[in-house]
């Protein structure tokens, strides 16, 4: 019997719009955010494997407007947004949520490029989340669905001389839609994070000849000492490659197997890359490739292991989410984008598992150049599998595999994660292997998931058709199943929560599978790595630690979310990792502060004494409340939180609203009355539903939970929360439904569950609604 969690998710707040661009306030930011301006937003050419000289970067300030989903194109802008930072991010200059019943509109003008006879103008988008409709001079030039893949439109026929106008309409329902959305949810909490909506990668124009190169397909073959290159274009034409010091003539849309003498292999220790160019008529593009091979083979002891370049190679990895406090899905700068990879390498890892996100092309270029193996997750389908979710997942996964084919760093495709939207596993694993035979396939990472050595759910046909077996074990690692022909890996483990004061996104909590103080992290982590060494002797071929960086509410990274503090020094991490990754190659230089190992309780006690001595300024009280809750002093946290709320003045800023929510957990807290008396302000910022969910959680914590713990009857609980109106009724029906479900009290369950679904079913996920309804039908 699955136990259903009672808690509802609390929404993040949105701010009042700024008319002139400036970065919006956030709890912490990275060192690169200060370098971002409307004139230099991600200025690098965005597609390193298909580089053209003649291009125009359209990043910068655009007009934006949010309208109802069924509204026509607006005539007036709400303000300016800095592209390509998502509208929810601080760097966009807006930091406002986009809801499933809204559209986001972008608009900017540009000058028509000078064109020679027959030349075309192509408008390119790195990625737009989720559905984009593009207009040029009021003419619709195309549509694209899917938040993670690039797309382009030929806009030549829509152009006019002089100034031209681009309009992009975006619809993004995040986790309420049918499409893949990764870790983005409208109500972020724990392992789920703030959504990214709209344009979040570079937008640019290119002038192309009438016959142009559309893409390249590059597949190395080190066993034959050749690289296979296909130059793709709309028509079959002669093409010329300049590669490895020689010129090779061929034909577009046909594979050219090009011999490479004295092959310089690509690996994390020696990331050798070959540069080349392709010429089709007047169209010239520059590109590169790496000569490497990945496979699962038996070692000399008979273990099935991951082989890199025909030798056993332990994949020592970290689980990288790709989120940023200032840009969410979008790194502030290209330097920041590269930093994550070189920081992970400086820690002594050789592998990154890119967790249910597809990065911009330049991220993979930095991985190729720096020398980092990548396990690339496909972005999972909506976990509830609503109608249309499977089709969207398969279409967009095919686009992801095709788009990422050429990067030598990517060695493994990961199909499913912990049964999130899993279906047709055998068919889809076989499809993925056939779509890209040059890589190995992890058909289901964490299909067997253990938490505190307890198996979450069995899988009778585990890892069918895949190249590896992959167990997730929190917090301590495990070896996965031994199955003939499959490598054994531990696809996730760890999650050691360690908070660093003044470097936290959410200061009231430090989520992790296990909590540790900074001074104890190194010992705990070292022991985990030593167990991996023991498992390696028993056949383990790879492991992925959760995780390199804190992310929003998760504070279980080896570095803080702002990338400022490393919790175990880099040199010490490399010393721990050298047994599983002995050949690290050249170590990049990375700058970060070492963590302060002072006992956190001692830091808090100093603040408490200052409070006793009369200190009451707002910034001090806010910090004290945060430190108190994390030091376990609940009464101190309540005191400081209540006093902090008294210092807040109207009109309320976004930071004020965030703080009230943060320090208000129940109806007993001072912030509850404050939220009620300022309800309309909070609703404008949070949205009506997110506000209601927050109030419901507080009613449960302050009124219902104490009575439930005292074994009070449901009639007494209902009478207690009646004064809270609809929010009280909804949380009461939810709590009673879940309690009867978990107790398997089906006689009591059926009428209350039916009442809950009839009245409030529209407010819960499709997956949960199905679970409740199935229980009604079965009993």
UniProtKB/TrEMBL annotation:
| Domain of life of the native organism | Bacteria
Signal peptide (UniProt feature, chain positions): 1-18
Which keywords accompany this UniProt record? Answer: Glycosidase, Hydrolase, Signal
**Glycoside hydrolase family 2 catalytic domain segment(s):** 335-443
- Domain Glycoside hydrolase family 2 immunoglobulin-like beta-sandwich stretches: 249-292
Gene3D superfamilies per the UniProt record, alphabetical: Galactose-binding domain-like, Glycosidases, Immunoglobulins
What terms describe the molecular function in GO for this protein? Answer: hydrolase activity, hydrolyzing O-glycosyl compounds
Q: Can you give the residue ranges of the Glycosyl hydrolases family 2 sugar binding domain? A: 83-206
UniProt-listed GO biological process terms? carbohydrate metabolic process
Pfam families listed in its UniProt record:
Glyco_hydro_2, Glyco_hydro_2_C, Glyco_hydro_2_N
The keyword Hydrolase is assigned to this record: yes
For whether the record's keyword set contains Nucleus, the answer is no
InterPro entries registered for this protein in UniProt: Beta-gal/glucu_dom_sf, Galactose-bd-like_sf, GH, GH2_Domain-Containing, Glyco_hydro_2_cat, Glyco_hydro_2_N, Ig-like_fold, Ig-like_GH2
- What stretch or stretches form a coiled coil here? none
The entry's family comment says:
Belongs to the glycosyl hydrolase 2 family.
Name of the molecule in the record: Glycosyl hydrolases family 2, TIM barrel domain
Q: Identify the species of origin.
A: Mucilaginibacter pineti
